[in-house]
Amino acid sequence: MLTVDNIEKNPSPQQTSGTTVTAFVLGILSILVPYVGFVLGIIAIILGKKALNRIKQTGEPGHGLALAGFICGIVGTALYALIIGFFVVAFIFFEMSTSDLEEVSIVTNLLVAV
């Protein structure tokens, strides 16, 4: 039976902050959503770090969610940075003419010989 004495003895648990939950959701989305994940990851990193600092100061719950959002944001940002970098490098090489590629091979041969 719920009485006033029971409510005072069992206070409601603290709620996780919105920043923590947002960092977690954006961190996961940064891995799952192509190309936009790069931007979502950066936002998740910022919000995750902000939430971790606040949790460290106030002791509120949600450390695991904030940390997961922070780490997922890093993974998502790095993943899509590598993918975008690969496409940029591939585009540059495919745009080169065959004479440019011959020059590149001559330079690489010289560097390997040294």
Structural features, described:
The chain crosses the membrane at residues 20-47, 67-94. This is DUF4190 domain-containing protein. Keywords: Membrane, Transmembrane, Transmembrane helix. Residues 21-82 form the DUF4190 domain. With 114 residues, the protein is an all-alpha fold. It has one domain (16-113). Helix content is 81%, strand content 0%. The protein has 5 helices and no strands. Helix 2 (18-32) packs antiparallel against helix 3 (37-58) and helix 3 runs antiparallel to helix 4 (63-95). The N and C termini lie far apart (85 Å).
Top keywords for this entry?
about 110 residues; mainly alpha; elongated; DUF4190; transmembrane helix; DUF4190 domain-containing protein; transmembrane; membrane
Q: Brief overview, please?
A:
With 114 residues, the protein is mostly helical.
What does the secondary structure layout of this molecule look like, with pairings?
Blueprint: H1 4-9, H2 18-32, H3 37-58, H4 63-95, H5 98-113
Helix pairs in contact: 2-3, 2-4, 3-4
Q: By helix and strand content, what is the structural category?
A: mainly alpha
Number of domains: 1
Query: Span between N and C termini?
Result: 85 Å
Sketch the topology as an H/E string, one letter per element: HHHHH
Main beta-sheet strand count, sense and barrel state: none
Give the proportion of residues in helices: over 70%
Number of strands: 0
**What overall geometry do the principal axes of the alpha carbons give?**
elongated
Task: Specify Rg, calculated over alpha carbons.
Answer: 24 Å
Our estimate of the beta-strand percent is: under 5%
The residue-averaged pLDDT reads: 82
Assembly status: single chain
Ranges with pLDDT <50 over ≥5 residues?
none
What count of helical segments does DSSP give? 5
